TrEMBL record:
<protein>
    <submittedName>
        <fullName>Phenylacetate-CoA oxygenase subunit PaaJ</fullName>
    </submittedName>
</protein>
<dbReference type="InterPro" id="IPR056572">
    <property type="entry name" value="Zn_ribbon_PaaD"/>
</dbReference>
<dbReference type="InterPro" id="IPR052339">
    <property type="entry name" value="Fe-S_Maturation_MIP18"/>
</dbReference>
<dbReference type="InterPro" id="IPR002744">
    <property type="entry name" value="MIP18-like"/>
</dbReference>
<dbReference type="InterPro" id="IPR034904">
    <property type="entry name" value="FSCA_dom_sf"/>
</dbReference>
<feature type="domain" description="MIP18 family-like">
    <location>
        <begin position="15"/>
        <end position="86"/>
    </location>
</feature>
<dbReference type="Pfam" id="PF23451">
    <property type="entry name" value="Zn_ribbon_PaaD"/>
</dbReference>
<dbReference type="Pfam" id="PF01883">
    <property type="entry name" value="FeS_assembly_P"/>
</dbReference>
<dbReference type="InterPro" id="IPR011883">
    <property type="entry name" value="PaaD-like"/>
</dbReference>
<feature type="domain" description="PaaD zinc beta ribbon">
    <location>
        <begin position="128"/>
        <end position="168"/>
    </location>
</feature>
Amino acid sequence: MVTVGQLRPPTPTDAAVWDIAATVCDPEIPVLTIEDLGILRDAHLAESGQVQVTITPTYSGCPAMDAIRDDVTTALSGAGYDDVAVRLVLSPAWTTDWMSDDGKAKLEEYGIAPPTGKAAAGPVRVGLSVKCPQCSSLNTRELTRFGSTSCKALYVCSDCKEPFDYFKVH
C-alpha cells in the first residue's frame, strides 16, 4: 500500500503544487480534504509548464468527481497556474486503506464512524463492531447498507439511540 506521505512529491515545486491541490475539500464530506481521503494520487508541474493532477474516485461513478476536478483547477488557477489538467484514474481502485489517520479522526469528529480494519484482498472479511461516533459504544447495528452516499452505511446505536453514517471499508 502506498500512503499519502509516500505520494507527496519530493521537489519543492511539485510539493507546492501538491499542497495547493491537497487543500480541496470533498463536497460530500466538507471536513475532509482530497488528501485526507487519499484520492489525490499525484500532482506535479510537467516540463511543458502544465500542472498535472491525478485523482481516484472513492467508487466508480462517484458524483463528486466533477466538482472535485473543478475545485482543484480553481485552486491551482488561483495560485497562478493557468494550465491545469486533472486526470481521473480508476486503477488501482481506491480503498479506505488510502485514507489518512487524520482523515479518519476528522470523520469521527464530524459524526461519521470511520472505516475499521483494512480492505481485504482475500475471500471473506469478518464483520467488526462499529463504534458510535456520539457515545463510543460498540452496541450498534446496521440499518441499511447504503446511507446518504454509496460509500456509507446507515447505523444506529442501541445505547444512545442515535443514527449515524459509517464510512464502509472497501
